[in-house]
Amino acid sequence: MPSQTRTIVIAGATSGIGLATALAFARSGAHLVLLARRAEALEDCARRCEAAGSPRAIAVPGDVADPAAMQELARRAIAETGRIDVWVNMAGVGAVGRFEEIPLEVHRRTIETNLIGALNGCHAALPHMLARDAGVIVNMGSIGSRVPVPFAPAYAASKWGVAGLTDSLRHEFRSRSRVQVCGVYPTVVDTPAVVHAANHSGRAFTGGPMLSPTHVAERILDLVARPRRALRIGLGHAAVPGFWLAPEAAGRAFGRVMRRGLDRGPRAPRTNGAVLAPMPDRPATTLGLRTRAQHRLAVTAIGAAVGLVALGGLLAGARRS
C-alpha cells in the first residue's frame, strides 16, 4: 500500500557507508528499497534495517551498471510504497596499483560501477521525481573528485565524472523543477572498501587518516534534510587549495607519497577484489582501522606538506617570472 512515510532508495547498500546510511535512515522510520549484487547479503541488510526501525525494507538484487536493474529498482519502489523521496547512488569500487599492471577490464569496470552506475540511477529516479516536482538525489563522490589520485586513475576518473554529473544535473533541474541533486565528497573512510578494492600493487593497505562511516551517514541524513550542492567531509579537504595553487608541485609530491605508501606496506597477493564480482564476506560498515589520534596526526601532516609544496611552487614561479 502507498504510504506517506518517506521512501529512501539506496543503490549499493550492503557495505560501508551504504549500509551505515541504510541503518541511519531505518532509525528515522523511513521505508527503504535497497539494491546490491549479492542477494543473500542484501536480505541480511534489509532484515537489519527493519530491526533498526524501518517499517519496510525491500531487497532488490541487481548491478548498478545494468540500466535495466536500476529501472526495476525504481519500479519496485513506486509499486511497493507509491513514491521515491530520496535516491542515493552509493555503489563504488576502486583499483590500486601501477596503471599498466591493473587489467584493463578492472579499470573499465571501476568506471562503470562508480560513474555509469550513478548515471543509471539518476536516469531511473528523475522521471518520477520530476512528475512530482519533488525529491532529492545524492551521488557519492570522494575527495578524489577534487584532486588527482596517483596509482588509482580509473577511480579518480570516475569520481571526477560523478562531480561533473552531479553539478550539471543540479543546475539543469534547479532551473526547471524543485528536484535537488547533491554530491557527497568524503576523505578516506574506514569501510570494507579498503579490502574490496582491486589491489595490483602487491602491498596491503595498513590504515591512515580515516572517517567513521557512521559519521558520514549522519551527515548524509542532514544533507537530505537541508539539500545543498556539495557536502565535503574530512579535514583533508583543507589540502585541496594546494593543488589549485601549484598543481604540478603538489601533484608530484602526492605521487611520491602514494608510491612510498604502496612500496612500504606488507606484501599481499594481487587481487581484483569486489570489482568484477562481489565478495562473500558478511555485510559490515567498518574494518576498525581508524583511530582518532592517527586521523588528527595524519591530516595535520598532509595539510602542512601540501601547503608547503604549494607555497614553494608559487615562490618558484615568482622567481622564474
How would you describe what is shown here?
- The chain has 321 residues and is of the alpha/beta class.
- It is 50% helix and 12% strand.
- It contains 10 helices and 9 strands.
- A 7-stranded parallel β-sheet has the order 3-2-1-4-6-7-9, with helices on both faces. A two-stranded parallel ribbon has the order 5-8.
- Strand 6 (136-140), helix 5 and strand 7 (180-186) form a beta-alpha-beta unit.
- Helix 3 runs parallel beside helix 4 and helix 9 (247-264) packs antiparallel against helix 10.
- The chain is globular and about 55 Å long.
Write the layout of secondary structure elements.
Elements: E1 7-11, H1 16-27, E2 31-35, H2 39-52, E3 57-59, H3 67-81, E4 86-89, E5 95-96, H4 104-132, E6 136-140, H5 153-174, E7 180-186, H6 193-196, E8 198-199, H7 213-225, E9 230-233, H8 240-245, H9 247-264, H10 292-320
Parallel strand pairs: 1-2, 1-4, 2-3, 4-6, 5-8, 6-7, 7-9
Helix pairs in contact: 1-2, 1-7, 3-4, 4-5, 9-10
Roughly how many Å apart are the termini? Answer: 70 Å
Please work out how many helical segments DSSP would assign: 10
- What share of residues are in beta strands? 5-15%
What would you call the structural class? alpha/beta
User: What best-fitting shape do the alpha-carbon axes yield?
Assistant: globular
Mean pLDDT across all amino acids: 89
**Parts with pLDDT < 50 across at least 5 consecutive residues:** 292-297
Strand count: 9
Q: How would you sum up the major sheet?
A: 7 strands, parallel
- Percent helix range: 40-55%
Strands in their spatial order, largest beta sheet: 3-2-1-4-6-7-9
What pattern of helices and strands is seen along the backbone?
EHEHEHEEHEHEHEHEHHH
User: What would you report as the Rg, rounded to the nearest angstrom?
Assistant: 20 Å
